[in-house]
Amino acid sequence: xxxxxxxxxxxxxxxxxxxxxAQGVWTQKPDLPGxxxxxxxxxxxxxxGYITTGYSGSYYNDMWCYDTLSNMWTSKASFPGAARGYAxxxxxxxxxxxxxxxxxTTYNDxxxxxxxxxxxxxxxxxxxxxxxxxxxxxxxGKGYIGTKGPxxxxxxxYDTLSNxxxxxxxxxxxxxxxxxxxxxxxxxxxxxxxSNPTYYQDLWQxxxxxxxxxxxADIPGSPSQAARWGATAFSxxxxxxxxxxxxxxxxxxxxxxxxxxxxNSWLQKADIPDVQxxxxxxxxxxxxxxxxxxxxxxGNLQTFWEYNPFSPxxxxxxxxxxxxxxxxxxxxxxxxxxxTTPYTYLWNIGKTTxxxxxxxxxxxxxxxxxxxxxAITANTIVQ
Length: 383
What we know:
Elements: E1 3-6, E2 17-20, E3 24-29, E4 41-45, E5 48-52, E6 63-67, E7 72-76, E8 88-92, E9 95-99, E10 110-114, E11 119-123, E12 135-139, E13 142-146, E14 155-159, E15 164-168, E16 180-184, E17 187-191, E18 194-195, E19 198-199, E20 203-207, E21 212-215, H1 223-226, E22 232-236, E23 239-247, E24 251-260, E25 265-269, E26 281-285, E27 288-296, E28 299-308, E29 314-320, E30 330-337, E31 344-347, E32 355-359, E33 362-369, E34 375-382
């Protein structure tokens, strides 16, 4: 009896897609319309992501919405506060929130966006002093804004139900500007940033249940490799991600780091494919992260990238031919990797197992579908 291997491989890849099987996949999406910019803010609601404000020689208050279903940007109601950059944005429930920032002056106003009515409502002013370059996140149904530097390390919690701000504990060494914030598992995380001339590579966790900050593992590497200002963050599932940023006067970055709270550890992932940048906007839709716009030494960017942390789904079929004495004892096995486990199997003979046995001579195919609905098909011939 002889054993044969038949390979069937199907992987569709956008020509603008860069991937590494262990590092995740970046796919280029349509550029941000209007004007390239740095230090805008963003948030996501359902299948849509939003970006507003920012700076590129002028300050902006226009807003753009990206729809993952149509893969298109559309213009939405402009942010009604003064045009600005260096604000903070996040989503809580079904609404987006934007506040603070700086332009012709610094601001402490705070606004809610309703995507159903495409309208903004002014909320209670941020509880701390007016500031730009603060950071924030939402966790456990509350919003959080704080830091700025060089003298402010206060942090504040926003309650949407009472429309009030409450000061919480300061974040360790929180005197810094242009830090990143994200949330995972009901807890908030803040890290990186600068308190000139110091650049940070640390990470702090805030637990809304205890009201306490805990210092977590630093981004690995020397300060010039890992410390940064004006980075971008988003979270996907149980992991947080920090990308790009600037170290020193012009050491722009395009690397991506994944933080796992379960192990308190970092892993470097695939670089942003095009150029170094800082001051980009990040948000999450489903199980993918998005990074748009930003600035570097060449100017202000409009490019837009989607990050999928999961390896591409791949499949090949191995088979064993039937023997001469038993023409119907062949076997075929679906060997699958990548994608999101668990997998489901459907053979053209109706079987739903990874391997099928008792095969007579003929052509057999299987479609494997992963947990997020990505499907791939391969076939083999048993003789």
